Amino acid sequence: MACSSCSTGKDGQPRGCKNNGTCGTDGCNKLTVFDWLSNMSLPNGQKPFDCVEVRFKNSRKEFYRNVDNLPLSIGDVVATQAKSGHDVGMVTLTGELVRVQMKRKKESPDDSTIPKIYRKATQRDIDVWQKCRNREEEIKKRSREIAISLRLEMKLSDVEFQGDGSKATFYYTAEDRVDFRQLIKDMAKAFGIRIEMRQIGYRQEAQRLGGIGSCGRELCCSTWLTDFRSVSTASARYQQLALNPQKLAGQCGKLKCCLNYELDMYLEALKDFPPQDSKLLTKKGLAFCQKADIFKETLWFSYRDDPATWHALHKEQVLEILELNKKNEKIDSLEEYAEDNVSDEKMAFENVVGQDSLTRFDRPKNKKRRNKKRRKPKSKASSNAKK
């Protein structure tokens, strides 16, 4: 899904709505839910569900009760109930799908504490809301300067104003507990608003700020990923990746979420795979596993006395040898099994359309030919004068 302004331009390049997922149609936001029940009418006598889903800045979504039965649709800007004053957000879902979303997030539709929707936002509400949104960057910069002057070990990553401009929520990350009582006093005095501090994790910070990953694409957490699953180093071990923190860590400093994308496929392939720490007993000597390719179902073994020479064995061959070793039987050598696995390697790439060689820049240049081109031809007048 995407808004109409996100389509491709005349030159073939994507135009983009340049609204960071908050365009008017709300079609290019990762939190947008397609209402597949919008064209279906309710059974006779059933009243429409009185709760709606409202989205605020970034990834914050909350449920509100439509007590006045306002005619709301997706994309409407509404004024909602807050602890003090009111907030302004955009309706993202209505109807029976809201009941499904509440059940998914383990919220009871019959809860009497669900806040309510006051009204559709007037032009004055929208003007105040936009004015507050425009002040966020300036206030964020000033608040960071105050935190640095107080020598607090914390990072203020984002600021979110309430719709009426009476309150601002500051999101921060920190390693340890931070005493920010003096910070709240200084910021309340400088900005003249109520302050709320909310600590978030490093993954949530990357989700809010966005960025480009090592793959060259936008971060998954800021484009489509809505839930964060725990990622451990075991995911890298199962996929036989080098445990290099610089390569496995993402923009947030934690392990990349994409390490879990193919993990299930690797676990499925490893069910009937021999352990990589297995040892084979042969008459020629003890052999250790040096490398394994899960999807080619191949393992490479070498003798303890000759670790530089590797022998490729198939998965079934290794399992067969292990069964013989359990019966205290030894095979003659690994070479007998490795000879059956030798096959002619096919050329993976062939220059059939006349591409230039990739090593053309490695060839030494001919200096003599280059010097000849630089020499200018002698004129006829100079040659006659010499005669």
Question: How would you sum up this structure, described in words?
Answer:
By secondary structure, the chain is of the alpha+beta class. The chain folds into 4 domains: 105 residues, no CATH class; 74 residues, GMP Synthetase, Chain A, domain 3; 63 residues, no CATH class; 61 residues, no CATH class. Helices cover 28% and strands 18% of the residues. The chain has a 5-stranded antiparallel β-sheet. Strands 9-10-11-12 form a 4-stranded antiparallel β-sheet. The chain starts with 50 loop residues before the first strand and ends with a helix.
- Radius of gyration equals 33 Å
Q: Which structural class do you get from the secondary structure elements?
A: alpha+beta
Strands of the widest sheet, in order across it, are: 2-1-4-3-5
Q: State the helical fraction.
A: 25-40%
* Number of alpha- plus pi-helical segments: 12
The geometry reads as elongated
Question: N-to-C SSE series?
Answer: EEEEHEHEEHEHHHHHEEEEHHHH
The domain tally reads 4
Proportion of beta-strand residues: 15-25%
Helices and strands in order:
Blueprint: E1 51-55, E2 61-65, E3 77-81, E4 86-93, H1 96-104, E5 117-120, H2 123-149, E6 155-161, E7 167-173, H3 181-191, E8 194-199, H4 202-209, H5 220-223, H6 233-238, H7 245-248, H8 263-269, E9 279-282, E10 285-293, E11 298-303, E12 311-314, H9 315-326, H10 335-339, H11 367-374, H12 380-386
Parallel strand pairs: 7-8
Antiparallel strand pairs: 1-2, 1-4, 3-4, 3-5, 6-7, 9-10, 10-11, 11-12
Helix pairs in contact: 2-3
